[in-house]
Design goal:
GO molecular function, one term: GTP binding
Helix content: 40-55%
Distance between the termini: 21 Å
CATH topology of the largest domain: Rossmann fold
Number of domains: 2
CATH architecture of the largest domain: 3-Layer(aba) Sandwich
Strand order of the largest sheet: 3-2-1-4-6-5
Structural class: alpha/beta
InterPro entries: G_CP_dom (IPR030378), GTP-bd (IPR006073), GTP-bd_ortho_bundle_sf (IPR023179), GTP-bd_ribosome_bgen (IPR019991), GTPase_MTG1 (IPR016478), P-loop_NTPase (IPR027417)
Strand content: 5-15%
CATH class of the largest domain: Alpha Beta
Family: Belongs to the TRAFAC class YlqF/YawG GTPase family. MTG1 subfamily.
Number of helices: 11
Main location: cytoplasm
Binding site for GTP: 67-70, 139-144, 183
């Protein structure tokens, strides 16, 4: 995203009432767990990382899991994993839908928890399973991850944010007890591009922002960073136009998003394009590039 684009960004905020309740719930239950799994979207590891969580977690051991890795640029995801390791943070890329990375994630969580569980045994307590809490923003895939780990559909899943709204314990094999909690966003995005990327990926409810303005930025971002993906997906001929409106017109004509009289149905076009991005139909795309300042 160019500096010129950043100077004229639409504002995106979303902080429903249950988010404040979720923060209290997490704070109250952190003392019950040994390890925190922070679940991020591999396409936007920085933008999907809630800076509030580090404050809540404190010194509690954590594992960073980059979910939806099947939708992200693998080279960029690897760079993020390497950066976390340099920061002494355990990190793994996963795909909760197919199970990729599950064994590594469980092993990391169990190893980090062992310090706590062995200390309890040394003090005379009975041996117990490691207790883990999964934390992350809405729609990052927590329910899908838990279902995959548990091997059964134990939580409600939906492709919209805010589905999980209460805590529940789930047994994961013999060595892991897992506490699910609601996703939490933060009240204000200091970096406006963070809110936009959360909107792009569906972490923020589509009804909570101006779709026309947000999609304008999305198309400009794609044209700047991944122009070949738009050209290939929508079979466009020649170079992309300079403005998002012209790009939308070109795609609309090619795909036949037309109203009566041959007028382009812009609303339908925007919805289809963003849904195809979220489904991975535009290719493997990473919107956050790693740098040392971006590791929370």
């Amino acid at each position: 995203m160019t500096e010129e684009m950043k100077n004229d960004l639409p504002t995106v905020h979303w902080f429903p009432g249950h988010m404040a309740k979720a923060r209290r719930l997490i704070t109250e239950n952190l003392k019950l767990v040994d390890v925190v799994i922070e679940l991020l979207d591999a396409r936007i590891p920085y933008s999907s990382a809630n800076p509030m969580l580090l404050e809540l977690i404190g010194e509690k051991p954590r594992v960073v899991a980059l979910n939806k890795s099947d939708l992200a640029d693998p080279a960029t995801t690897k760079a993020w994993i390497d950066l976390y390791k340099k920061q002494q943070v355990q990190a793994v890329s996963i795909d909760a839908m197919t199970g990729v990375g599950m064994k590594t994630l469980v092993k990391m969580a169990e190893e980090l928890a062992r310090v706590k569980t062995e200390k309890l045994v040394s003090r005379g307590a009975n041996a117990r399973a490691a207790r883990v809490m999964i934390l992350g923003i809405p729609n990052v895939g927590k329910s899908s991850l838990i279902n995959r780990l548990a091997g059964a559909s134990v939580t409600r899943t939906a492709d919209k944010p805010g589905v999980t709204k209460s805590k529940q314990w789930i047994k994961i094999g013999k060595n892991l007890d897992l506490l699910d909690t609601p996703g939490i966003l933060w009240p204000k995005f200091e970096d406006m591009t963070v809110g936009l990327k959360l909107a792009f990926t569906g972490a923020i409810n589509d009804e909570a922002y101006d779709m026309e303005k947000v999609m304008s930025v999305f198309l400009e971002t794609m044209a700047a960073d991944y122009p070949e993906r738009l050209i290939e997906r929508y079979k466009l001929i020649g170079e992309l136009p300079k403005t998002s409106a012209e790009i939308l017109e070109m795609i609309g004509k090619k795909r036949g998003f037309l109203l009566k009289g041959g007028i382009i149905d812009h609303e339908k076009g925007r919805r289809i394009i963003i849904n195809e991005f979220r489904a991975g139909k535009l290719g493997l795309i990473s919107l956050d590039q790693p740098n040392a300042q971006q590791v929370h």
